[in-house]
Design goal:
Layout (H helix, E strand, L loop, with lengths): L1 E2 L7 H7 L2 H27 L59 E4 L10 H9 L5 E4 L8 H19 L4 E6 L1 H12 L6 E7 L16 H4 L6 H6 L9 E7 L19 E8 L10 H12 L6 E2 L10 E5 L1
Parallel strand pairs: 1-9, 2-3, 2-4, 4-5, 5-6, 6-7, 7-9
Antiparallel strand pairs: 7-8
Helix pairs in contact: 1-2, 3-8, 4-5
């Protein structure tokens, strides 16, 4: 999938001042940085709207009981129900009542020191393409432990399944949110509830960026070699969840960049490389949203064991130019 835009007016100047390959790289980085700044400014304006928890939808009251015997009843006005409400020319029910396919609820989980407002654009995109049950969960910015946050996520998932009557959900997690969701799936038995987990810029192998942030306990858990990441490296032979990881080659918060890929011999993984945008743009950019929709709608057979086919696991790419 490739998204192209009009050529920037700065391109000829860059090509004159810099070698061709370096000019292209510098222009791409410049555009990605400008986009990150614009997204950050917009997100700061929206941030207050996402501080409070999302209002839960009111459950739909159950309809009248269905006549399973097919005998039907007659009302006082002579209206026919049950078997008598069928057409006079055949024994099949009204064709307008064909069953419609339903999709699992989608749970959106934000990143470090963020809230559900980061998913405004993605939520709208999912809703416009048929996702009727979308829920954005907030965890406290004071959260200091990924394990505790994963337990809280598990309780939220159980409540959502009970309220919606669905057995499974799909999860989209940005940055730290993806790591919390993965811990829930792998270490707390969440694979029973999570059909597909999509992660966006998540440090699956740990990131070394901004060493001064090590004062925060949850940041230390996102460092290479932490206890939490060691637990995620443990065998998971019976994990049923499908993983799709989007990672960007211009992600400023992933060091090294490939840390946002999932490498595990027991997991069904599809790693998707995104070119041309940074960390903050991953849950916002329309091309990435299209890739997320495709990932959620794909069959499980399309996922691949990461260790069995390491080269193929990185074959998918999304270019935003």
């Amino acid at each position: 999938m490739k998204v192209t835009r009009a050529v920037s007016p700065l391109l000829p100047l860059c090509q004159r001042l810099l070698p061709g390959r370096l000019a292209g790289l510098s222009l791409t980085l410049l555009k990605a940085t400008a986009l990150e700044i614009a997204i950050l400014a917009g997100h700061l304006l929206l941030y207050p709207t996402g501080i409070t928890p999302e209002r839960r939808p009111t459950p739909t009251p159950p309809g009248p009981p269905t006549d399973l015997t097919g005998a039907g009843t007659r009302t006082g006005t002579g209206t026919r129900t049950g078997a008598e409400a069928r057409t006079d020319t055949g024994d099949t029910p009204d064709a307008t009542r064909l069953p419609t396919p339903t999709r699992p609820p989608v749970v959106l989980l934000h990143g470090f020191i963020d809230n559900r407002s980061v998913f405004v654009m993605l939520r709208r995109s999912l809703a416009q393409h048929g996702r009727q049950q979308i829920e954005s969960l907030n965890y406290s910015p004071l959260t200091c432990d990924i394990r505790t946050a994963a337990e809280l996520l598990g309780r939220h998932i159980e409540e959502i399944c009970e309220r919606t009557g669905r057995h499974e959900v799909d999860i989209v997690g940005h940055s730290l949110g993806g790591l919390i969701a993965r811990y829930y799936v792998q270490c707390l038995g969440g694979d029973v509830r999570v059909r597909t987990l999509v992660t966006l810029g998540t440090p699956h192998s740990g990131t070394r960026v901004v060493p001064l942030m090590n004062a925060h306990p949850i940041v230390r858990q996102m460092r290479p070699g932490s206890g939490v990441l060691d637990e995620l490296c443990q065998p998971a032979p019976h994990c049923r969840t499908r993983f799709v990881s989007f990672w960007s080659d211009l992600d400023q918060l992933m060091d090294p960049l490939e840390t946002a890929c999932i490498e595990h011999p027991d997991l069904l993984v599809q790693n998707v490389r995104v070119s041309g945008i940074g960390h903050l743009a991953l849950p916002v950019h329309p091309a990435v949203a299209a890739g997320i929709r495709q990932a959620l709608d794909s069959e499980e057979t399309e996922a691949r064991p990461a260790a069995a086919h390491p080269a193929a696991a990185r074959a998918d790419g999304l270019t935003v130019a």
